[in-house]
Amino acid sequence: MLPRRLIDTLQRLAAGFPVVAVTGPRQSGKTTLVREVFADRAYVSLENPTERAFAEEDPKGFLKRFESGAIFDEAQRWPELFSWLQGMVDEDRQPGRFILTGSQQFNLLEGVTQSLAGRVGMTRLLPLSLAEIPDEQLRALSLDALLLRGGYPALHTQPLHPDDWFASYVASYVERDVRQIMNVRDLTTFQRFVRLCAGRTGQVLNISALAGEAGISQSTARAWLSVLEASDLIFLLPPYHRNFGKRLVKTPKLYFIDTGLARWLLGIRDEQTLALHPLRGALFETLVVSEFLKARYNRGESADLFFWRDNNGLEADLVFESAGRLQTVEIKSGHTVTKDYIGAARRSTRFAGDEALPPWLVYGGDEHFERSGVRVIGWRGLAVEDA
């Protein structure tokens, strides 16, 4: 198993809560991780039709086998589980007794909030961060190769061609999960919608334009976006919430969690095409934002990431609070730090005035240094940066 940064958070929560839940997209490594960390627990997959039939027909008999604790994989597949666990943990609140995993946050969170509120520690496992890819493998990858491959563990541990894997992933999981959560009858339209979303990664979300291009209503577009977000396939980055006396963009920016999935949906199949593609910069920005997001989730924190844009042309690709002040991050995909890059990074702090920390610039090269008050970080530096 590849070392995952979530391990410390899992162990911390398991020491304090009787139930620990791990959500995240399918194939992000949830099952492998919890079976490694909690190797002493019995394991049962509720996607196994035999186990699920047993649970539904005789819940007391089913759970009798696991009184000392268990891992319930894809727990949302048996919604009654949460109510039964409530009674069991109220009788015995032994920390770390039950471990739940789920790849559909809608159903899992509904069960948790209704039955297990105050009894469960929630975590989220996304695909591999750069810090979780073995050093020798990361050194062997060019930036474009990484953008093509993405971070799903199977593509870094098995001899799989990424295009084959993503084709199977979309058909086996994305489309199936959507059908389970929502009654999507027109799969062709949904497929077009997901590809249109990929074409908007790194952009401010315009629901009206997206719905119009997909040929669906705005309410349907919002519902489908909610499914993609709940399945941890996309992330909506909100604008920073403080006004600073400016007229601001008030809609979020859309990002895919994984660049490999986004570029596959865009039809980009090789490094030569990617190098010249107009969305290469957006895919690099997607990678950087995703790295900051993964770092926070791995520490058990909420995202608390934002962007800034006003009608005076001031913009910061990424904003977050740090020690009571504001850290801005400028993101540029070029391999060489130019004067314009430094200027953009410096301008990104102007909206915050004295509250701004010295800006960061993450770029597509390899060097790390400071220039004109800007901290410059090469993309590989995100593997060690405490984002």
* CATH fold topology of the domain at 7-124: Rossmann fold
Largest sheet: 6 strands, mixed
Category by helix and strand content: alpha/beta
Question: Strand order within the widest sheet?
Answer: 9-10-11-12-14-13
What does this 3D model show about the protein?
The protein has helices spanning 7-14, 30-37, 49-57, 59-64, 81-91, 105-115, 135-140, 143-149, 154-157, 162-181, 187-198, 207-214, 218-230, 259-265, 271-276, 280-298, 339-347, and strands at 19-23, 42-45, 70-73, 98-102, 120-124, 203-204, 234-237, 253-256, 306-309, 315-322, 325-332, 360-363, 369-371, 374-378. With 387 residues, it is α/β, with parallel strands linked by helices. It has a domain at 7-124: P-loop containing nucleotide triphosphate hydrolases (Rossmann fold), CATH 3.40.50.300. It has a 6-stranded mixed β-sheet with strand order 9-10-11-12-14-13, sandwiched between helices. A 5-stranded parallel β-sheet has the order 2-3-4-1-5, with helices on both faces. Helix 5 packs parallel to helix 6 (105-115), helix 8 (143-149) packs across helix 14 and helix 11 crosses helix 12. The radius of gyration is 22 Å and the shape is globular. The protein starts with 6 loop residues before the first helix and ends in a 9-residue tail after the last strand. The relative contact order is 0.10. The mean pLDDT is 93.
